[in-house]
Every structure is written in structure tokens, then in C-alpha cells.
Specification:
By secondary structure, this protein is of the alpha+beta class. The protein is built from 15 helices and 21 strands. The chain folds into 2 domains: about 270 residues, 3-Layer(aba) Sandwich (D-Maltodextrin-Binding Protein, domain 2), CATH 3.40.190; about 200 residues, Roll (Dipeptide-binding Protein, domain 3). The strands form 6 sheets. Strands 14-18-13-17-15-16 form a 6-stranded mixed β-sheet, sandwiched between helices. The protein has a 4-stranded mixed β-sheet with strand order 1-10-9-8, with no helix packed on it.
């Protein structure tokens, strides 16, 4: 009996100790959670610069980057978005499923999502938005991109089905895109306003308040926000809405934007002049960032395949091996870019560092060896460029010296941007200095490798691989096919990519909550002012 009593007391003490430990742990977790929750200070206005004014308010009709940057995911939100590794994930969608061999897509929508006018988002709004963005009478921006979507059916209060005429591998890319945003709009509001966006009404964390043309745009916190919760992962997770207002001030000149930051008129500015970044970094009152976005613009050289010398793969390889991409990046954008030959941006999920080993890297001896194999006899080859985009000109000056060092004789021809663009489309050039807007969608990113390109390159294997990419909804398989296309570019050298350009910006030290991811997709709702 005594032994049992002793054991009982021992067990009781152990349970009491364990219980105390659990209580302490729980208290600690609550304390930590409270600290995290309380870390951001609420209130105030976040003041930012805009390099140009809005072109319009209807995101279903525009691909202008400024419209999408200001209104996308602040006022309006999308069915899908990207996580921290740039993978496509559901956002206003709770879950989804492909059926009928990829010809039917079922979207189960989140419940309880509120529009700024107090209406709940339902299947009616989603169908209306998806029909509207592909309406050629509007005209919707995605009329051609969503041609394979033949019907959007409502199959429940919070469920829609997309009926496709053929498999559409890039469907989720379009539903997640932030250039030509497929915003979910309120059906009732648009019908009241004759299908026109008089005042943007979305589901985002901030509401539309004011637009003074050529002066400013003001957004205000939406207290009824309910779309997102949970751990922050890229564009997913809780949106804190710390500041009361987002104020954008239109300042077209870079020097004006820097001056406004200096005077304390704004807290945040982007698109920094490259030659000023190094000096800005030395300052104690601002933080400067530079990071590669997944849809970064890439600078490169096209060659005309109708030209007898440029059509020779040995000559193209000689050109490629003669280029020091690191030096070109330094010369063109003061080093604020990522040097690479890869058509797969280093920020995309399909990219791996091993891909760089396949590329024709800087090697003057190899360049000269390939030059000897080619049919080149010292002829002068023209490089077409424009000074309207400074990096486009500066990358040519750097390359000209590198090509001359291995025996390639070139001459620079400078034209205005309109002429430059027209001659690109007509293939009226020999070598062309150019820049392409990056795409998250591998099919779109490789468009200029298809047989439909302007400069005359044709490769049946690439056409086949692109067709397969367009025919699969398996994202891993698409990435594998993307890498196969890249391997061919390393052998064929159809063009020469130099670098992807970084996003740049600077903000005052009292602006908090900015982390690495925000350098290319700034989550304004999680920033706060001290």
C-alpha cells in the first residue's frame, strides 16, 4: 500500500510537472504570437512614387504595367497567384481539378470573400469576370489568350467549370498573371454602370479612393477584407493592412523621384537610375534593394538568319564565346542585372544553376576557333540599336569591343525606337540589340524560338517541344520540356541573351516589413511605418 501510494505520488508529481511545462509552452507560444502580431504598427499613409500615370482603371482591358502594379492585388485580386518559389497556387479558389482529359477545369471558390461594396463573391461574379475578360466587344485583353475557353458554367453558388476546346497548359498562368490581370470584379457593380469601371470595386485589402490625373492615386484600407489568411508565403497568406492609405505620386523624371525621397515627401521609390544606386547605398537614411523578378526584362542580340554569315552556326558560336556577359551587364546597367545566356530566367522554377554549364561562356580562344570554321572573311556587320533605352545601346558598345578582340568587324547603326521596333518586326537588320519582356509562362517565354518569329530561325524540334508544353497541365513536365528547349539554344545559338534586368528601389529607414521577396513583388499590405 505504501509502495502504491509512493508510486501514485510520483506519477502525480510527474503529471503536474508535465502540465506546468505544457502551460508554460502554451504561454510562450501565445507571447511569441502576440509579439509577431504586434510587430507592425497600424496607421499612417505609405507614400510612393509612380514613374507614369495610370492609363485606365479597367484591368480587363489593359496590359499596361503601371495599371496592373497599382490596382492588381491591392484593389483587385485573382483566382490564382504565386508562392515564394514562384509556383502557381490557388488564391480566391479553395481547390481546383482538371477533368475530361484536361478539357474541363472545376474551380471551387472561397466562401465569405467580400467585395468593397459589401457583396459576397460568388460563382456569378467569377463567371461574369471570366466572360468579360475574353469578350471581343469590350474588348477584353485576353480575347485571344483564352480562345480555348468555350464556356464558363456555374455549377454551384461557389463553383464554376471552364469548358475547353483543347488542352490549355498555360491556363493557370493567365489566371495568376499580374500583367493583364484577370481581376475578379463585382457583377452587380458593373451592371449598374453599363459594364464600365466607373470606380474600381474588388476584393483586395485596399479600396479605391481618388485619382487626380498626372498627380496622384489614393487607396484606403478595406476593413472588411477577408480573402487571405495563414502563413505568409510569397503572395499567399495573411494581409495585415497596416497603413491606413496607400498614396502614389506621379513623378516621371528619375531625379525628381530621388529628390522627393531626399526631402521626405515620399517613403518609397522604385526604378532607380543605375548610375545613382551605388551612391544611394552609402547613405544611412535609406535602404536600397536590387533583385531579379521572375518576369524580368532580358537584354539580348538577335541575328538575321537570312544573312549568309549570320546563318552560319560556327559564326554565331564565335560571337557567343566572345562575349563576357558579366562585363556587358556592368557596362549596360552598372551590374544591376543577372548575367546569363539562359532563356529560362534564373528566378523561374524550371531554372537550375547547372544550366549555365551548357551555355557558350566567355572564351576568346574558342571564339577564334569557331570563327576559323565559319565562312567569315572579315566583312563588316551592322548592329542596329537605339538610344531610347540606354542599356540597349550600352550593351552594343561593350559587345563591339569584345567581337573586335577576336576578329569580328562590326559597325553600329542608331535609330529612334519606333524605327527600331518596326525593323525588328520586318527583319530589316543584321545584328539587332533588343530587350524582351519576361514571361512566367514557358510557352510565351519561348515564342521567339518558334517558327513564327521575325528573324528567320526555324527548328522543328523546338516547335515540337513547345507544342508538348502547350498540351500538358503537368507543371513539372512543362519545366522539363522548357529545359530541353534551352539545351537546343546552347547548340544552335539562335540569339544571344546577355542579362536579365533587376528591379531596383529605395525606401526610408522608418518603413518596416520589407523582405527579399518584396524586391520583385512588393506586398504593400504587410509594410508599416514607425
Amino acid at each position: 500500500m505504501n509502495q502504491l501510494s509512493a508510486k501514485s505520488k510520483l506519477l502525480a508529481n510527474r503529471w503536474a510537472l508535465a502540465a506546468c511545462s505544457m502551460i508554460m509552452i502554451a504561454a510562450l507560444v501565445l507571447t511569441i504570437s502576440g509579439l509577431v502580431e504586434a510587430a507592425g504598427k497600424r496607421g499612417g499613409a505609405l507614400r510612393m512614387t509612380m514613374p507614369t500615370d495610370l492609363t485606365q482603371l479597367d484591368l480587363h482591358q489593359t496590359s499596361a504595367e503601371i495599371d496592373n502594379a497599382v490596382l492588381g492585388m491591392t484593389v483587385y485580386e485573382t483566382l490564382f497567384t504565386y508562392d515564394g518559389k514562384n509556383n502557381i497556387k490557388p488564391f480566391l479558389v479553395e481547390s481546383y481539378e482538371f477533368g475530361n482529359d484536361g478539357l474541363l477545369v472545376t474551380l471551387n471558390l472561397k466562401k465569405g470573400v467580400k467585395f468593397h461594396n459589401g457583396e459576397e463573391m460568388t460563382a456569378e461574379d467569377v463567371k461574369f469576370s471570366l466572360d468579360r475578360v475574353r469578350d471581343d466587344k469590350l474588348p477584353g485583353f485576353h480575347v485571344n489568350n483564352l480562345k480555348k475557353v468555350t464556356e464558363v458554367k456555374i455549377t454551384g453558388p461557389y463553383q464554376v467549370q471552364l469548358v475547353l476546346s483543347a488542352k490549355m497548359a498555360n491556363l493557370l498562368n493567365y489566371l495568376a498573371t499580374d500583367v493583364g490581370t484577370i481581376a475578379i470584379m463585382n457583377k452587380k457593380d458593373l451592371q449598374t454602370n453599363d459594364n464600365k469601371v466607373a470606380k474600381p470595386v474588388g476584393t483586395g485589402p485596399y479600396m479605391w479612393r481618388q485619382w487626380v490625373k498626372d498627380s496622384k492615386v489614393v487607396l484606403e484600407r478595406f476593413d472588411g477584407y477577408s480573402s487571405a489568411d495563414g502563413p505568409v508565403d510569397g503572395m499567399l497568406g495573411k494581409r495585415q493592412q497596416y497603413v491606413d492609405r496607400l498614396e502614389y505620386y506621379i513623378m516621371k523624371e528619375p531625379a525628381t523621384r530621388i529628390m522627393a525621397l531626399d526631402k521626405g515627401d515620399v517613403d518609397f521609390t522604385s526604378i532607380l537610375p543605375y548610375h545613382m544606386i551605388d551612391d544611394l547605398k552609402k547613405r544611412d537614411d535609406v535602404t536600397v534593394y536590387s533583385a531579379l523578378p521572375p518576369d524580368a526584362v532580358w537584354y539580348m542580340y538577335y541575328v538575321n538568319f537570312n544573312h549568309p554569315i549570320l546563318a552560319d552556326v560556327n559564326f554565331r558560336k564565335a560571337m557567343a564565346y566572345a562575349l563576357d556577359r558579366g562585363e556587358i551587364t556592368q557596362a549596360a546597367v552598372w551590374g544591376y542585372g543577372t548575367p546569363t545566356f539562359s532563356v529560362i530566367s534564373p528566378s523561374l522554377p524550371a531554372y537550375t544553376p547547372d544550366l549555365e554549364k551548357m551555355a557558350p561562356s566567355y572564351d576568346p580562344e574558342k571564339a577564334q576557333a569557331f570563327l576559323k570554321k565559319s565562312n567569315y572573311k572579315g566583312e563588316k556587320i551592322k548592329i542596329l540599336t537605339s538610344k531610347n533605352y540606354t542599356p540597349m545601346y550600352d550593351q552594343v558598345v561593350a559587345a563591339q569591343a569584345m567581337w573586335a578582340a577576336v576578329g569580328i568587324n562590326t559597325e553600329i547603326e542608331i535609330v529612334d525606337w519606333a524605327t527600331h521596333l518596326a525593323r525588328w518586326k520586318k527583319a530589316e537588320h543584321e545584328i539587332l540589340s533588343f530587350a524582351m519582356i519576361g514571361r512566367m509562362n514557358p510557352v510565351a517565354q519561348t515564342w521567339n524560338l518558334s517558327s513564327g518569329n521575325f528573324y528567320g530561325y526555324k527548328n522543328a524540334k523546338i516547335d515540337e517541344l513547345r507544342a508538348k508544353m502547350n498540351d500538358t497541365v503537368d507543371l513539372e513536365e512543362r519545366n522539363r520540356l522548357f529545359r530541353e528547349i534551352y539545351k537546343i539554344t546552347c547548340e544552335d545559338v539562335p540569339y544571344m541573351i546577355n542579362f536579365y534586368i533587376n528591379n531596383t528601389g529605395a525606401y526610408k529607414k522608418n518603413l518596416k516589413g520589407f523582405v527579399d521577396y518584396d524586391a520583385y513583388r512588393t506586398r504593400l499590405w504587410n509594410l508599416y511605418l514607425e
